[in-house]
Amino acid sequence: MSEVAAAITLAHREEWARVVATLARRFGDLDIAEDATSEAFAIAVERWPADGVPPNPGGWLTTTAGRKAIDLVRRENKRDSKHREAMMIFDDEPAGPPGAIDDDRLRLIFTCCHPALALETRVALTLRMVGGLAVDEIARVLLVEPSAMARRITRAKVKIREAGIPFRVPAPDDLPERVSGVLAVLFLVFNEGYLATGPDTDPIRDDLTTEAIRLTRLIRELMPDDGEVIGLLAMMLLIEARRAARVSMDGELVTIDEQDRGAWNRALIAEGHALVRERLNAGMAPGRYQILAAINAVHTSAPGIRDTDWSQVLALYDHLVQLDPSPVIALNRAIALAEVDGPEVALATVDRLEAPLNGYHAFHAARADILRRLGRGSDAREAYDRAIQLSGNAAETAYLARRRDQLAG
Amino acid sequence: MQYLISVVDDGQAEAAGSDLSASAAEDAAIDVFNEQLRTDGYWVFAGGLGGPVGATVVDNRGETPIISDGPFLESKEYLAGFWIIEAPDLDVALRLAAGGSKACNRKIEVRPFLQP
User: Fold this and answer.
1) Strand partners for A382
2) Residue A387 belongs to what domain range?
């Protein structure tokens, strides 16, 4: 890649959210902010190769996008454009005190993740406005037609404008709940990358996991004291660290007990462990992401699967079940229980979860594994079949099929 | 901005054997909530509606008005009442709607009026 192209890529990664956020505050309109920002980047692609990369790319992009936004407002010639123009002039001062721009990015994130928007819409809008992904890319990510994705994003912008969704950080009373709404969006993006669905997609979408981590890092920068933000980041890093070992050469999922631990990313593990320690030292009751991070820290601390401190994992799941009594958490707890109290005890627990989880591939996969260990071959085979039928991930299907075919009898 | 807060009765009044949507306890809670709206300056207007049994649909888009008995949409859920509030943004409107939903013990829809 040429130096200019690299500079544009870097500016896109570093400055996109900042420029959109600044414009959204100045013009009070997400649509204008988005259009003007993409135009500014298009102009950079055209001009920078000839004129050279400006000394302050972020400043250049913000100024250029600001001019484009003024053009857009004038061209729009709507009934409220006079009002907007007046506001623009009033607000066209140099940026406020240091940190004010970061606040704009935070406002942007909270607006995109507003609870009055549907969850899929929040994900799409966050990837577009904060992540800077193109509409086509987001459509691919979320497995919908590009035209449908464009309509969804347009509708969301209309709703934000017409319903009066504010561009600001929520009131302190609402903050914990709204932060957890933002984290849920990032977790969803990460999870889709971690175990991608669809027969034609890569089993692990590192573009998605990387983007989720990047955005979570950004939120951590903006809200450095929030324990759950740190917990989510640590959890993502500790899972991401194992990425290279999670799929075999033949495209088969490799479960943690069979992974080559030498292929784990030591730098990410060290960073994740440091974050978990930071939260332990804070001495505050951990939320669900902090507990999930701690569970991943136990796994990544063990030199081999036999060294895993399963009783510690189980204790953490016991704690997590108190905070989040969902059947999926109970299922994961049962997997740890199988290691501590044996497969027989675990099977009884798993079977109690059948009603809520019967349509969930991981339920049947966990059950199949436990039945296999109990030597119940034909029951295990049935459970593997069901898991394969329900799993949307090619690597996981390959793994389950191999395990099924290895069953005796 | 002004928001319409619609109260949705999903058949619970009928289930309770009443023609009126709100029970006496609900009415009392609504009075308290309304008083607070006035005190805090959000109040514009509010009212409870009679049941769908009293509804008549009029369509005068053609030559002569066509009048028909019943609501325009036959459904188990119906509009039982509404508030119109003045609020700076959706966050405030949603917070008030949450209070309203609690007071009238019904599901609620929040919609902005078109900006003048």
Assistant:
1) none
2) 309-409
